[in-house]
UniProtKB/TrEMBL annotation:
Lineage summary: Bacteria, Pseudomonadati, Pseudomonadota, Betaproteobacteria, Burkholderiales
Full protein name: NRDE family protein
InterPro entries: TANGO2 (IPR008551)
UniProt source species: Paraherbaspirillum soli
Pfam families in alphabetical order: TANGO2 (PF05742)
Length: 244
């Protein structure tokens, strides 16, 4: 994932609602969301190159999602795939806190990431790039949050814009379709508000949109997740056709 906005313990009856876009190279093979044959309780898309996933749920209401931290100068080609951090939590029986404690000692081996894990009682944000709170795992208090390719709630233009729109839609009790419309916004940020992540100004402009489209890389899927207070969970995914 490259953008996730989510409400934790804000909406009665739905302790977690999340809307997300997955951005990836078009050439990287993946399967659309579905029940996994080897882990029948997991419902998620699947990375067919290295395994794992970017966002998913279980029949019992577990939730996990991941974004990459954009730091091209620090990227290591030999790092393990980050997608298994999501799938390993979904397939485990550990609490969110127990899982983060397990991941943390080896987290530096991965390229930069943000990880959200929820077990129905806690929702924890963890990153291997950040301060002590990030590296220890931060249990989240009720509120509306956003993550792109920096740390939690860093004020990148698309995070600020999408969080505000997401909050408005939640207050209106808007239908699911409007959340997917929100995720199709192709408006780039103005140059004065662009972050500087080491990819050059032209690339920063392209990547600043909520919905990304470029010749080789872009938004591959949009997802809406709702975890219910009764333990149920639903995940709706819309796969985006890559340019031909």
């Amino acid at each position: 994932m490259c953008l996730i906005v989510f409400a934790w313990q804000v909406i009665p009856g739905s302790p977690l609602i999340a809307a997300a876009n997955r951005d990836e190279f078009y050439a990287r093979p993946s399967a659309p969301a579905g029940w996994w044959d080897d882990h029948p309780d997991i419902y998620a898309g699947r990375d067919l190159q290295d395994g794992g996933t970017w966002i998913g749920i279980t029949r019992g209401g577990r939730f996990a999602a991941l974004t990459n931290v954009r730091a091209p100068a620090e990227r290591r080609a030999d790092a393990p795939t980050r997608g298994t951090l999501v799938s390993d939590f979904l397939s485990s029986k550990q609490s969110a806190a127990e899982y983060i404690a397990k991941v943390a000692p080896d987290a530096a081996a991965y390229n930069g990431f943000n990880l959200l894990v929820g077990d129905g009682r806690q929702l924890i944000w963890y990153s291997n790039k950040g301060d002590a709170d990030a590296r220890n795992g931060q249990p989240l208090t009720p509120g509306i949050y956003g993550i792109s390719n920096a740390l939690l709630d860093v004020c990148w233009p698309k995070v600020v814009r999408t969080k505000a729109q997401f909050a408005s839609l939640l207050c209106q009790g808007a239908p699911d379709e409007t959340f997917f419309e929100m995720l199709t916004d192709t408006t780039p940020a103005s140059d004065c508000r662009l972050p500087s992540t080491g990819v050059g100004i032209d690339r920063e402009r392209v990547l600043s949109a909520v919905f990304i489209a470029s010749p080789d890389y872009g938004t591959r899927a949009s997802t809406l997740v709702k975890i219910q207070a009764n333990g149920g969970a639903v995940l709706h995914e819309r796969v985006v056709q890559s340019p031909q």
